[in-house]
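Convert to structure. Protein one:
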Amino acid sequence: MSKILVIEDEAAIRRVLVKILSEENDGYQLEEAEDGLRGLEAVKNNDYDLVLCDIKMPKMDGVEVLEAARKIKPEIPFIMISGHGDLDTAVNTMRAGAFDYISKPPDLNRLLTTVRNALDRKELVVENKILKKKVSKNYEMIGDSKELAVIQDMIEKVAPTDARVLITGSNGTGKELVAHWLHEKSPRSAAPFIEVNCAAIPSELIESELFGHVKGAFTSAVKDRAGKFEAANKGTIFLDEIGDMSLSAQAKVLRALQESKISRVGSDKDIKVDVRVLAATNKDLKKEISEGRFREDLYHRLAVILIKVPALNDRRDDIPLLINHFSKKITSEQGVAKKTFSDKAINLLKAYDWTGNIRELRNVVERLIILGGSEVTEEDVKLFASK
C-alpha cells in the first residue's frame, strides 16, 4: 500500500485531497501536515512513496520544503499544489526536482492520473537502485575469508564516491573484478565502463588510444578518432597495468586528472571530460618512481584510495568455494555433466602454491573437469594438476 503525505495549510483543500485519494481503488495510506515545518519533519521521520505539497504556506513554503526534502530523501516524488498566482513558481519547482504540479481547486482525473504516474516513477527509481547495487554475475567475488571481506567493505565505502582508486596485487588476483565492483556499485553504473590494458598497447599508440587523434596527426590517422577518455565520459575508465604506460602518456593522464580536459593527438583543442579514473598495477610503483619510470605526481593523483588485492595463497580458505563456483560455471559453458571434487582433492588443491592466483586455479579446475572422472579425486589432481 502506497503511503502519501499531504502538506496543505488550507483545511478545506486538505480534506478534499485526502477524500479523493482515500476513495481511490488502489487504497492509499494517507497522512496530513498543516504547514511546511510539520511536513518536513514528517518526511524526515517517515518513509513516504509520494508527497503532495502546497506552495504558499506559513512558517515554511512548499519550495523550501521541496529543496530540504530532496537533500535528505531525493527519491520521494513531490507533486506541488499551486494557486492561480503560483503557476510560475510551480514550473520552477519542477526544474528544482518536483515531479509535477496541480492547480487549485484540484481536478479529480488530473489529480489521480498525476498521483499514479508519480508512484509508478517512484517504483521504477527504487527498482533501478536495487539493480545498480547488484554486481553482474560475470564479476562476482567468491569467498568468505577475512581478507576478502576487508576488500568488499572498502568497495562499499568507496564505490558511491568519485574518489580515484589504485588497485594493486599480483597477476591473476582479481584486480579487474574490484574495478568492476567499484563501477557497478557507483552512481555512474549506467554510464560506460571503459577498460584499457596499458601493457597491451604499443607505447607509440597509447596516447592515441587514450585521447584520440585528428586526421593527419600521423601516417595512419586517416580520419578523426575519439579516444577512451571521451568514450568513458560520465562513466569510468579503468587503466589496467598503468605501470607500463609511457612517461609522455602519463603526463597527459595527469593533465586529464588535474583539469578534467584532454586534447586529441595532433590537436590543441581542449575537450572537457567527466570521468572517474580507476587504475591497477602488479608493479611496485614507488620503486618505479625511484628509478624514473613513473611520475610521482601522477601516483599521488591516482592513489587517493589504495586497495591491495590479496594473493590466493593468503586466502586459502576461499579455495573450496572458488572450486565449486568454477566447476558450475565451466560445466555449464562446456555443456558437460556437473562434477564434484572429493574432500581429498580439495585439500590437495588448498595446499598448492598458487603463483598464478585465481586465474591459475580456474585453469586447473577446467583441466580437471575435462580430464578427470565423474568425481575429481586426489589421484586426478596428482595426475593432471601437478606443477
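Protein two, convert as well:
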Amino acid sequence: MKNIADLMNYRESVKVIDATLRDGGLVNDFYFTDEFVRDLYMANVKAGVDYMEFGYKASKELFDVNKFGKWKFCNDDDIRKIVGDNNTDLKIAVMADVGRCDYKNDIISREDSPIDLIRVATYLNTIPGAIDMIEDAANKGYEVSCNIMAISNSQEADLRTALDMLGQSPVDVFYIVDSFGSLYPEQIERLAGIYMEFATKYNKKVGIHAHNNQQLAFANTIEAVGDGVDWLDATYSQMGRGAGNCAMETLLGFLRNPKYNIYPVIQFIEKHMVPLKKSGVVWGYDLQYLMTGLLNQHPRTAIQFTKEGREDYSEFYKEVMAHE
C-alpha cells in the first residue's frame, strides 16, 4: 500500500515534461502558430515545468516538409527563434523515432544546439537501433531518454532483456509508454516495479507517458509517481494523438511541489486550447478510443472513425472486435 505521506509531500526528483507540441502535433500535423508556441514556452517557464518537448526530429527524406508544420522537423533555428538563448530553468527536448529520422546529420553537437534532451522512441524489436541513437546523442553531449512504445503488447521476458540492454547504454531515463491507453493502475504498478529494478541496477531514472483511451492517463501517472517513477509526461488540455494524454492541469494540481504553478497553465488553456478546440481540431476521450483501449489495439482505426465523422459506435465495435 502507498504511504499517505508520499501523497501529502513532494519529491524533489520529480520532473514534469510538456509534450503538447509533439503529441498534440499528431492531431493537427504540427501546424501551430508561432504565437501559440511562444506562449506555450512562456507558460511552461512560469509554471515551473522542467522540460518542453518541441516536436520530432523527423527525416526530410521520409516526410514531405510541405505536408507538415515545422515542429515535425524541429530545426534548431526554428527552436531558437522561440526560445532565444533560453536563459531559464526550462530545458528543451525533441523526440527522434527509430527508423524515421536522420539523427547522424540532423542532431548536431549539443554545444551548438538549443536542445538539451533527445527522447528516443522505439519498439522492443528495434532496441539495437535505439541504442545506436542513444550512444550518438550521448556522444554529442545530450541528455537522453528512451520511450519503449506499445509496452502493453510486450512479453515480460522481452521487456527485461530490452531494459538490461538499455541499462548498459548511456541512456538517462527509460519510459513506460501506454501507447494504446489499455493499461490499468495495477498493471502500471507491476511494470513500474520491473522498470525500477533495472533503473536501480544501472542508476537510471524511470518515466511514464500515458494515453487516455480509458480515462486513466492521470490515474496511471499518479500511480507511477507512488511507485517511484520520476519523469512525468503531460499535455495541456490532454492534447495528443487520439484520446490524448495526462492533462498538465490535473498533474500540476496533484503535485505538491511549490515550484509548480498551475495558474499560467489555466491562462494558456483559456487563450489557446479552448479556441483550438472550437476551431475544429479534435482530440480527447470518446467511445471509439475506449473500444480500442479495451481491446489493447492501436488507435489508428478509431482515429479514422473520428476523421470520417462517424457516429455508428456499435458498428465500429463489431469492426474492431473482428480484428481480435
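The longest strand covers residues 91-97. Residues 287-322 form one domain.
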